[in-house]
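Two proteins were folded this term; both appear here.
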Amino acid sequence: MKKLVKLLPVSMLTRFESILMNDFKKAKILVTKSNPEVLEEISKKKVMAVFKHAVKHVPAYQNFLKNNKININDIKTFEDYEKLVPQTNKKNYVKKYSYEDRCLFGELPFKGNIDESSGSSGNPTNWIRSVKEEDMLFKAAKFEFNYIFDSDNKDYIVLSAWSTGPWATGVKFCEIMEHYCLVKNTDTNVENIIKTLKTFGKKYNYIIAGYPPFIKHMLDEGKRKINWKDYNIDVVTGGEGIILEWTDYVKSHLKKSAKVISSYGASDIDIGIGFETPFSQLIRRVASKNKKLRGELFGHHEKLPMLFQYNPSMHYITNHINKQGKQEYQISLLDKNVVSPKLKYNLHDEGGVIKYVEMIKLLEKYEPRIAKKLKTFGNKLITKEVLKNDVLKLPFLYVTGRSDGTVSLDGANVYPHQIEMCLHSHPKLIKSTKSFRIGVDYDKKENINFNIRIHLNKGVKANDNLKQLYHNIILKRLMEINSDFKESYLNDKFIINPRIHLHDYDHELFNVSRIKNKYLD
C-alpha cells in the first residue's frame, strides 16, 4: 500500500480521499486497520504538491522565498523541502504581505468568509477562506463527530455557546455542525441554554460547546434551576488547555455516559487541527501518573499538556526548536483549494508531534498492560470511561501552551507585552513595578483564575489601594487594546477578571538570576 501511494499522482489520491470521506465506515477502516505510515506518505506527497502550487500562484509566497534567497529549482524532493524551505509565521509573512498577495492569483475569493483574531497587538487580523476549501474540513468534522458521538445513530441538538462575533470558532462551528444536526447559537447565555433544554425535553441528545471557563460557570450557575443529569448532555470545548480535574468536575454534573471532548484549532489555520479521542484521553490520564512516560512523551513539563490526534492528510505537522530552545511545531495545509496557503506555518505554540508507531512503542515500554490490551483486542480499546472504540492509527499532537508566555482563557489571548502596555499607561504603576508574570490556575472548585503577579520595586509597599489601582488600570487598558478580552469580559466578568497579586521587592518567586514575563506553570 505504501509503495502504491508513492506511485499514484496526488490528484488521484485527493479524489480517492474525498470519496472515502463521504463514507464513514470505509474511512474508519482506513484509519483503524491500515499501516499508519500510509497516511504519512500521503501527507508528504501532498505537501510537495501544495508547495509547488503556492510557488506558482501566490505572489506573497513567491516574494517570501525570493527574499529568503531560496532558489525554487533547488527544491526537487521532499527532503529538499524539509531542509531548505524556511518557516512562515504571523510576523515574517502575514504582517508583511497584503491580504490579496497572500491569496491564490493575488486576489480575494469571490465567495467565502472572513474570520478575525485580535492578534498580539490588539489590532485585528483577518483570515480569508473560500467556500471551495471548506469541503474537506466539513467532511473531516463529520468523521470526527460520528466517531466520537456516534451521530449517525443518534439525534443531536447542538447548543453553540462560543462567544459570538467575527471570531473563527463560533462562526465556523455553527456553519459546520448545521450540515449534520440541529444547531442553536445560544451565545454565553446560561438562561437560554436551560430554556432550550426544557423546551425540547429529555428525549434528545445534546452537545453543549463552549470555552472551558463558561462550561464550568454554566454548570454551577444552572444547577439551581435544572438537574443536568436529567438530560443526555455531552460537551465539546477548546480554546485553552484543561486539567484532568476540570474534566472530572464537569463529568460529575452530567450522566455517567457523558463525553467531554476538547479540540484544537487556530484562526490562522482552521478550527479542526486536532481533536481528543478516547485513546488520547487515556494516554494523557495514564501519563499524569507515570512520570517516566510523561517525560518521554512531553519532555520534563510539570504541566500536563493537552493531547490530540490529527489527520495527516489534511495537516502536515513537524517539530521545530525555537531560538529559546523550546519545541514548537510547523503546520502546512494540504488542500490545494485553500485560498490563502500556509506552509511551514508556526503558531508559536509549544508542543510537538508523536507518530502513532512511536506512541505504541512508548506504551509497550512504560505501560505494557495497556499495550497488551491493544494487541489482545486488536484495534479495540477497553477502559472504564469509554465503550469499545476502534483506535484511530493517527499521529498525536501535544500542546503545552503558548511558547511566548501568552495566557489563553475563555477564547481570549492575553500577551505579556499587553500587560506591559497597561503598566506604562500610568506613571505610578510603571514606577512601582520591577517585573511581572501572568498565568492561570484553578481554585478548589475548579474555577479558572487569571493571575497577574506584580514584583514591586525596592521601597514600594503593598497595600489595598495600590492593588486596586493596578486592577483598575490593567482592566481598563486591556479592554481598549484587546478586543477578544473585552468580549469575554463583558460576557462574564467573573471568569476573566484579573486577580492582582503584589509581591514585595526580592520576593522568592522572582528571586532568580533571569527575570522575564512568562506563563506560570
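Next, the second protein.
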Amino acid sequence: MKSFFKYLLATITGIILSSILLFLIFMAIVSAMISRQDKELDIKENTVLYLKLDQPIIDREPEFPIDLSSLTKNQVIGLNVLLDNIEKAKSDDKIAGIHLDLLFLRTGIATIEEIRNALIDFRESGKFVTVYSEALGQGAYYLASAADEIYLNPLAYFNIVGLKAQTAFFKNTLKKLDIETTIVRAGNYKSYGERFTEDKYTKENREQIERIINTVWDDILIKVSKERDITPDQLKNIADDLLLKNSNSAYDYNLVDSIIYKDQVISILKSKTGTPEKDDLRIVRHAQYKHVPKPKGYKGLARDKIAVIYASGGIDLGEGDDQSIGSDRFCREIRKARRDSSVKAIVLRVNSPGGSGTASEAIWRELDLAREAKPVVVSMGDLAGSGGYYIACMADSILAHPSTITGSIGVFGLIPNAEGLFNKMGITFDEAVTNKHADLFSGLNSPDAEEIQYLQGLIDGMYDTFVSRVSKGRNLNTEEVKKIAQGRIWSGVDAKEIKLVDKYGGLHDAINVAKSMAGLGDKYRIVELPEQEDPIEKLIKDLTGNAKLRAIEKKLGIDAGYAETVMEFMKSFGVNTRMPVDIKIY
C-alpha cells in the first residue's frame, strides 16, 4: 500500500510540475509573439504605408493579437485600427503615400465605403494613393476607385457585372426532415421566417431587396464615375454587355491606369518616393504601423473621454461575447459610461441584425437613460436592422452609409414542430400536463388556432412597443412610423429620406458629431467598450464549444454560413426582432 501511495504521489507531482512547465513555455511563446508585435518602429522618410487587405475586416480589432487556441495571429483586420492608421498617415511627415494590394475583399459594402472615404480624405493631404491587383473583385474595385492610380496585372481577373442579393431557403430541407414550421409576424415585409416556410422570395420580400440593391448599385456607380471620369450609364453598359474581356479592355474604358507587373509597380513607387532604383522601397505594413502612437495636440493625459461602444453580432439575453451582443454585458457597460463623469458622450457602433426583443428593450432602456445624461450618437456599419435598429433609434443623431441595410421595424415568432423528424429516427415522446396549452413551446406539435391567436397578440404587443420606441426616438408620430415599418428593410439612401437616419457618415464622423454635441475641444480621448474578453477565458471557450463550430466551418468552407443559419433557426423560438442575416449582396 505504501508503494501505491508513493507512486500515486509521484505521478500527481509529475503532472503538476509538467503542467507548470508547459504553462511557462506557453507564456514565453505568447510573450515573444507579443513583444515582436510591440517592437518600436523606426520609420524613415518617404515610407509607403502598405495595406494588404487580405483578411476579413471587422469593426473592432482584437486587443490580444494571438489566438491562444492555435497560437497563431488573429487573422482579421479591425476597421477601427485601419481608419486610425489612414488618419495618422495623413499627418505623418514620414509617410509619402498609401499603396493597397487588393484582391477580393471579405467585408460588407458599407465597410468598404467607410475605408474608401478615409482614402479620399487622405488624398487631400497631397499624398498619393495607389492600388495594384492580380484579381480585382467588384467590392475591391469600388475601394480602388478612390486611388490616384490603379495598376492591374496583364492577366488579372476583373469584371463588373452588377450587384446581386442571394438568400438560402430551407423549406424543402425541413420538409425532407419532416419538420413543420409556424411563423407569426407583425409586418408584411418581416421576412426572416420565410427562409423556413418558402422556397423563394415572396412579392414583398423581393420588392424590398430589389429596391436595396438598386439604390446601393446606383450610389456606387455615381461615386465610381466621379473618380474615374466615366458616366454611370457607361458603367451600366459595361456590366450589361459584359464588355470587360481582359485587363486591356479595363484600361480602354479608363477603369484602370496601367497594365503592368508587380516589379514595375515597385519601380513606380520608388519614383514617387524618390528612392533610388538600386535601393529597397521603404514600406510599413498595417500591422506594424498601428503601434506608432497617434500624435496629440496637447500635453499630458486628457481627462475628458468619448466612449465608443461596439455592438456587433446578434442580440440576446445574458453576457454574450466579443462576437455577439449580450444584454447583461452591454447594459452594464452603458450604465458605467453614463455614470462616469469623465465620459462626455457615447458613440454606439451598430453592426447587428437584431435578435431577442427582450434583450433589445433592455439595451434601449439603458441608452435612453444615457441620452438624458449626455449626447448619444449612433454609427451604423453594414447592418443595423430590426433589434439593431431598436437599440439605435433613441440616439440624438444617427449616421449611416448609403449602402447600410437598416430598418426592419417588425417582430416575428417562430414555432417548429420536429415530431415527424423524431418519429423517423424511432424516437417517441409521452407527456403529462397540467393545462391544455402547457406544451405550446415543446417543439413537438404545431400550435392550434387559439394558440396562434395568443402568439399573434404577443407579437403585436411587441410590435407596438417597437413602433413607440422609434416614434419617440425619431420624433415621428406613430402613424408615420407604421407606414415605414412593417418589417421592411431599407438602404441607407432610403432610410435617410424617411428620417430613420440623420446623415451619411462613418465611425470617425460620428465621433466628431459627439465631440461637437458635448462641446469638447481637441483635448479628449477615445475609450472603446465593452472590455474585450479575457484571453485565458477565451482560450477555455475556444477549446470547448467554439472548437466544434470551427470544425464545422473548416469542413464546410464557404457553406459554413448555411450551418450557421440552421443554428440560428434552432435558437429563434419565441418573439424576435431579427432580420435576415444571410442576405449576401456582392
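The two ends are 71 Å apart (CA to CA). Residues 32-37, 68-72 have pLDDT under 50 and may be disordered. These notes refer to the second protein only.
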